[in-house]
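Problem 12. The chain below contains 129 residues. Write out its predicted structure in token notation.
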Amino acid sequence: VENTQLIFESLGIDFSELMQSAPQIIGRENRGKLIFKAPPDLITHKISWPTKEDPRKTEVVFELRAGAVQDCLPPSIHPDTGRPYTWAGRSIFDGLPELPPQLLTLWREWDKIRPQSAHPVRLQADIQE
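Solution.
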């Protein structure tokens, strides 16, 4: 979450507001998935950064998921933690909100925006300036 917040801050997106704007699926601590209605033509994009433990390995910082993907819904059991997935954020019973315009722009302009977020050291330096 911290790294995603750093990326979104650099793009001028209010991460805290975004986190409260939609239902979330929580499967592991410090991770979650926001759920929005989205146009059918979107595809999955992701940002991966080197891990702190081994810079040769990477981990996904965040994904914009669409297309042929699936998720487990609460109260399914997470395969790694053995605990149930949970809901957070806005209630799923209020309906799914539309994808916020800033996320749609991020999705549609991915090839232009991704290089700004692809490297953690460069991104942190840009924010501090």
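Discussion. The CA atoms of residues 10 and 127 lie 6 Å apart. Students who got a different answer should revisit the alignment rule from Section 12.3.
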